Amino acid sequence: MAGLRGPLTDEARLVKQESRRTITTGDGVVLSVDVVGDGEPIVFLHEFSGNLLSWAPQVEALSRNYQCIAFNARGYPPSQVPDAAGAYSQARAADDVADVIAALGIDSAHVVGLSMGGFAALHVAIRHPSRARTLVVAGCGYGANPSDQADHFAAMNREAKHAEAIGMSAYAQELAGSRYAKPLRAKDEGAWRTFAQQLTAHSALGMAMTLRSVLARRPSLWHLEPQLARISQPVLLVIGDEDEPCIEPNLFLKRTLPDCALAVMPRAGHLLNLEEPARFSRLIERFFAAVSDGSWHRIKASIS
């Protein structure tokens, strides 16, 4: 199946130059990448239960003016699923983003990440600052507080064992029925069904490895404060007001990141870009435009 799929219309598919390609990372892992549209590049980083298809609404909205790049993280078919725990880490996830950007012959891109992808976006700015023009960090914060680290580590390891024990079909049903997916189902049953169906194509092994080696072991945001305070790129933080675990971490990020704004979407949960696709797309497009036309910095200077 070539190109991004999801809620794209047939007409939209005809006018877009969709392409599915693969790139090989610095450590030899093959990733599946979609590139749609022309203009300033945007790289989309999916959350734990998502994949590149999760960004279909944003790609449809933004590829008219931007080059939209989405890829499946390692462990998410059709990207390669390494079977060694050492092949997965938060640092490696950030390096994969930089490898994708480099392989496409791009100097830098707007980096948009949700949840797991939001953490990766921050680490791209820390590890590969020249690759990120701006950051959109959405739904970021689960297990990020130092006081939550031990419990989070244990919970992620239990979840990994559980995923392996029951297999992907049963695990996909559990994820689709979990609390964080309920707001999406309440707002758009069709979008939720698409989300649930896409989950079945995931790999239980890949998700278990991601849980153990990325989600369980990523450093607390508070422990990264010195590095975060040196991020110079414009950052847009986005959270839903019903996504309680993300509220305190985002207030911390708002205080720490030198050049950022915080957007709170009302009556929204964790899957922000799917729950409120048009609103999310407009929000990030206006952010990119404000950075490009200089108003982002003029407003910041006027209130500093």
Report on the architecture of this protein:
- The structure is a single chain.
- It contains 13 helices and 8 strands.
- It has one domain: Rossmann fold.
- α2 packs across α12 (277-293), α5 (149-176) crosses α7 and α5 packs antiparallel against α8 (204-215).
- Strands 1-2-4-3-5-6-7-8 form an 8-stranded mixed sheet, sandwiched between helices.
- The protein has helices at 10-15, 56-62, 90-103, 116-127, 149-176, 182-187, 189-199, 204-215, 225-228, 247-256, 272-275, 277-293, 295-303; strands at 19-24, 30-36, 40-45, 66-71, 109-114, 132-138, 235-240, 260-265.
- With 304 residues, the chain is α/β, with parallel strands linked by helices.
- β5 (109-114), α4 (116-127) and β6 form a beta-alpha-beta unit.
- The protein starts with 9 loop residues before the first helix and ends with a helix.
- 48% of the residues are buried.
Class from secondary-structure proportions = alpha/beta
Provide the succession of SSEs: HEEEHEHEHEHHHHHEHEHHH
Shape call: globular
Assigned CATH superfamily: Alpha/Beta hydrolase fold, catalytic domain
CATH topology, what is it called?
Answer: Rossmann fold
Q: Considering DSSP H and I runs of 4 or more, what fraction of the residues is helical?
A: 40-55%
The portion of residues forming beta strands comes to: 15-25%
The largest pleated sheet is described as:
8 strands, mixed
How many H/I helical runs?
Answer: 13
Provide mean pLDDT, rounded: 93
Rg to the nearest angstrom?
Answer: 18 Å
| Domains (count) | 1
The N- and C-terminal alpha carbons lie at a distance of 50 Å
Number of DSSP strand runs = 8
Indicate the CATH architecture: 3-Layer(aba) Sandwich
- The parts where pLDDT drops under 50 for at least 5 residues are 1-17
Strand line-up across the major sheet: 1-2-4-3-5-6-7-8
CATH domain class name: Alpha Beta
